[in-house]
Design brief:
The chain is of the alpha+beta class. It is built from four helices and nine strands, in the order ααβββαββαββββ. Strand 1 and strand 2 form a beta hairpin.
């Protein structure tokens, strides 16, 4: 079965909503070179036994567990497809660890910890809250942080 982008977007966004939230600062000082490879290779680097959720031509997506925390690990066939997916998902908030043609989505602490194994850039989605800020656009965080 070939899944199309309209079919994938709701599932990806629901996963992002279910797996994200606010947390403590998780700032890794020692960031390795950003990992590359298949979903299985990235999962092995992250010490994850992936529970495959989507296996399509344009996106492969799995759930991973880390202790009591879970996160989504996805790989993409194109850079453009990845960026479109991230831009859509970020409207729902959350924390994203972004590498070349892959992304991990989860709680802030989890993606910060994964960054110590997979490298990548931390990005934050739109914040939805009543703390006077309303909707705040997400942006790359720690992108200039050397490692």
């Amino acid at each position: 079965m070939r899944l199309t982008r309209p079919m994938l977007a709701p599932a990806a966004l629901a996963a992002a909503l279910a797996l994200t939230g606010c947390g403590a600062d998780g700032d890794g000082d020692d960031v390795p070179v950003t990992a590359t490879g298949s979903l299985e290779h990235l999962a092995a680097e992250a010490e994850c036994a992936p529970d495959m959720q989507t296996d399509a031509d344009t996106i492969r997506q799995a759930l991973c567990g880390k202790g009591g925390e879970k996160y989504v690990l996805a790989t993409f066939s194109t850079d453009r497809g990845q960026r479109e997916w991230i831009n859509t998902a970020k409207d729902y908030g959350g924390y994203y660890l972004v590498g070349r043609k892959w992304v991990a989505v989860g709680h802030e602490d989890v993606v910060a910890d994964l960054r110590g194994r997979l490298g990548g850039t931390l990005e934050q989605g739109v914040r939805h809250g009543g703390g006077g800020g309303g909707h705040e656009a997400g942006q790359s965080e720690h992108a200039g942080h050397g490692g």
